[in-house]
Amino acid sequence: MKRAIFPGSFDPLTKGHLDIIERSVPLFDEMIVAVVDNPDKSAMFNPEERCRMIAEVLVETDTNDCTMAVESFSGLLVDYARAREASAIVRGIRAVSDYDYEVRMALMNKRLEPDIETVFLMAAEEYSYVSSRLLKQVFTLGGRVEGLVPELVEERMKKKWAEIQATKE
Ligand code: PNS
Prior knowledge:
The protein has helices at residues 15-24, 47-59, 77-83, 96-112, 132-140, 151-168; strands spanning 3-8, 30-36, 67-73, 88-93, 117-122. By secondary structure, it is of the alpha/beta class. The protein has one domain: 3-Layer(aba) Sandwich (Rossmann fold), CATH 3.40.50.620. It has a 5-stranded parallel sheet with strand order 3-2-1-4-5, sandwiched between helices. β4 (88-93), α4 (96-112) and β5 (117-122) form a beta-alpha-beta unit. The longest helix is centred in the C-terminal third of the chain and has 18 residues, at 151-168. The chain is globular. The N and C termini lie far apart (53 Å). The structure holds 4'-phosphopantetheine (PNS). 4'-phosphopantetheine binds at residues 7-9, 36, 76-77, 105, 108-109.
């Protein structure tokens, strides 16, 4: 049984993340999308909202025979991965700028837990510039994010933004 963890902030899930999920599920029997639960003042969605959103998007996604789960975790990723008996951590790399951070993280994780491999997938070209942080910035300044996030995520972003605006009035 090959179980992988796909960890991240996912605030929110983008089409780039979804592409990585779709391309990595044929490699594993089980995959847990793991949302990091750390206090972040600039977060748009809380971890529960992110998990719910991802789970809803995955219902509409073809994940072959791979069993999917969505959870939040706190603490060290390798401790969580070990507790879940995962053999791999999946990460997407978009550009050279990601490489440095990702390699350092993978090597540190390998040192902490030699039995867990990090598997890197190159981001699809059309999403190689897409990040949750940039999307949030564009969206909150009134720019279009259509096609860069799943439709359900775009709807939730609009709803959340309306709620935020309402509290300011
Ligand atoms: O989507 P992100 O923000 O790039 O994901 C980063 C994440 C969640 C994978 C990373 O911050 C992480 O693993 N956090 C858990 C704490 C941890 O294990 N830190 C040491 C990493 S070497």
